[in-house]
Specification:
Blueprint: E1 2-9, E2 14-21, E3 26-31, H1 40-43, H2 46-49, H3 51-55, E4 59-64, H4 67-73, H5 79-104, E5 112-117, H6 119-130, E6 135-141, H7 157-162, H8 164-167, H9 173-179, E7 183-188, H10 196-208, E8 213-217, H11 226-240
Helix pairs in contact: 4-5
Length: 241
């Protein structure tokens, strides 16, 4: 069963589409790649790949427009503007989207799995690290974790708080303790357009902070593309959901 809704986000100051597939099971927030919209994952046949898990009522999959990703890709505005939109996007996820998911699941305390590929993996990692009180695991595929390539001049506080590569080193207190009870999976091919080094860098930082994680190398035959992610995600959701 597919359900699509659109609402105006005060944080992002625009209409956001959110789509759900499935009726019961563990909620999974699947972020689009780069500037994709909420239905990108369906167009690229990810829902077909997840059909067995959906039919068995093991997962309910949610996706939303990649507002911040579009801003980075288009190099919209200044560095400060793009970083601010990224930070606001994460706040939208935590303060608007997760409460909507919990309401849809009829459970005010249900925990969510974050997942995504490429920049979607960055968002999955970031929300898991920022909000471990609501996300219980992150499945990060072929991740692009360092957005420095989109920064022309200077990093701002918004960028720092939105980027795990920058805030993880100083993370402490209850947030870190909660995160140490979570799990982060970093999967990557080593074929065309892949950079598994980004996953190893993240894993090193997570390890230094005592946060459970693993890197899964998939080898040179797996490229930075949808066939890879359609193979990865059902396998990992079968493990985590």
């Amino acid at each position: 069963m597919k359900l699509s809704e659109t609402w105006y986000s005060e944080r992002l100051r625009q209409d956001i589409q959110v789509v759900r597939w499935g009726e019961m099971g563990t909620p999974v927030l699947l972020f689009p790649t780069a500037g994709g919209d909420a239905e990108e994952v369906e167009r690229f046949l990810m829902m077909d790949a997840l059909a067995d898990l959906l039919a068995a009522n093991r997962v309910k999959v949610y996706s939303c427009d990649s507002v911040a990703g579009r801003t980075w890709i288009a190099r919209e505005g200044t560095d400060a503007h793009r970083a601010r939109v990224q930070n606001q996007f994460h706040e939208f996820v935590y303060r608007e989207l997760v409460p909507a998911i919990r309401m849809d699941c009829h459970d005010p305390n249900i925990e969510v799995i974050a997942a995504g590929a490429s920049i979607g993996a960055y968002n999955a990692l970031a929300v898991q690290c920022r909000y471990p009180d609501v996300f219980k695991a992150a499945i990060c595929m072929s991740g692009t974790y360092d957005l420095q390539r989109f920064i022309d001049h200077e990093r701002t506080a918004d960028y720092y708080y939105a980027s795990p590569l920058h805030f993880l080193g100083e993370l402490d207190g209850p947030q870190l303790e909660r995160l140490r009870s979570r799990y982060i999976l970093l999967a990557s091919g080593e074929g065309r357009a892949e950079d598994i080094g980004e996953s190893w860098r993240v894993a090193h930082l997570l390890g230094l902070k005592g946060i459970p994680n693993r890197v899964d190398p998939w080898g040179a035959e797996w490229h930075h593309d949808w066939p890879t992610w359609r193979r990865m995600l059902p396998q990992y959701l079968d493990e985590f959901a």
